[in-house]
Amino acid sequence: MSGYLIRRILVMIPVLLGVILLIMVTIDLIPGDPAALMLGEGATADTVMKLRKSLDLDQPLAVRYVRYVSRLVQGDLGRSIREGRRVNEEIAEVWPATAQLGLTALVVAIAVGVTVGVLSARWPYSLFDNIVRVLSLFGLSMPIFWTGIVLIVVFSLVLNWLPAGGRGTWTHLVLPAVTLATPTIAMLARMTRSTMLEVLREDYIRTARAKGAGNRRVLIRHALRNALIPAVTVLGLQTGQLLGGAVLTETVFAWPGIGRMLVRAIFARDYVLLQGGVLVLAVTFVVINLLVDLSYAYLDPRISYR
């Protein structure tokens, strides 16, 4: 296990280096001078030149890349152009809010998606199963921002049960967490149902039932654990959608997280802050997928890492 973990961590390094390069190339492809765009139309040529020099924009891409990576190794993500603060400090302030929202959405998605998928497999092609499949398709089809707006209209404006935005008590967390979790719930429910139906046809399930095991024991102890491996894989891939959806969700609900910070950075053309925020999200995605891979050995003892 330790050898596998070291190899995966080493693989993460070129992935993150590639993300940094991709961000820099994307900024270079933006029409016009990035420094002039950051400062606006009223900036003088001297001011633009100073900003270009401070951001190393007067240097070739290879030089800027090496310098940024060397500063990154020292824990320096640069300084925000608009605020003048270190990007590390900006991200440290908003990251707890994003972590709270993401983890809550993840827990809701796992609890609801897996439970609904198991029950659908328990009674396939029943009324409950048909409703779940229709709702799952609906949840996958609807954009996150549209789902968020509908929830705000229904539960905040019409019923007046929950606040429409901001961060404070647990009530502020309900609507954005449900909004962010909806696509993942739908995907997990469909995947869990499909894999459970396959597992329930296996010989060892028939053997367990022949020995007198009840339906609940067969479903939870024997079938669910083996059916979770594909679902966990999907969950790892859905993490990227959770992180991407956090940008829209935090904007719709005025949630003060890293997603909303990235939107402000885009409109302010603060590419230093934008680059640091995207890099942090990329690191989060890579780490979560590593944890997903490590969880396979727990779910299935036959899997070993060498």
Q: Major beta sheet, specifics?
A: none
Give the strand tally.
0
Compressed to H and E, one letter per element, the order equals HHHHHHHHHHHH
CATH topology of the largest domain, which one?
A: MetI-like fold
Named at the architecture level, the CATH assignment of the largest domain is Orthogonal Bundle
Low-confidence stretches: none
Secondary structural class:
mainly alpha
Tell me, briefly, the overall form.
globular
- The CATH C-level name of the largest domain is Mainly Alpha
Strand fraction equals under 5%
Helical segment count: 12
The residue fraction in helices comes out at over 70%
Look at the structure and name the CATH superfamily of the largest domain.
MetI-like
Our count of domains comes out at 2
C-alpha end-to-end distance: 6 Å
Average of per-residue pLDDT values: 80
Using only CA atoms, what is the Rg?
Answer: 24 Å
Keywords:
306 residues; mainly alpha; MetI-like fold; 2 domains; 12 helices; 77% helix
How would you explain this protein's 3D organization?
There is one protein chain. The protein has 306 residues and is mainly α. The chain has two domains: 15-73, no CATH class; 101-299, MetI-like (MetI-like fold, Orthogonal Bundle). It has helices spanning 2-29, 34-39, 45-54, 61-73, 87-122, 127-141, 144-158, 171-199, 203-210, 215-252, 258-267, 271-299. Helix 6 crosses helix 8, helix 8 (171-199) runs antiparallel to helix 10 (215-252) and helix 10 runs parallel beside helix 11. The relative contact order is 0.14. The mean pLDDT is 80.
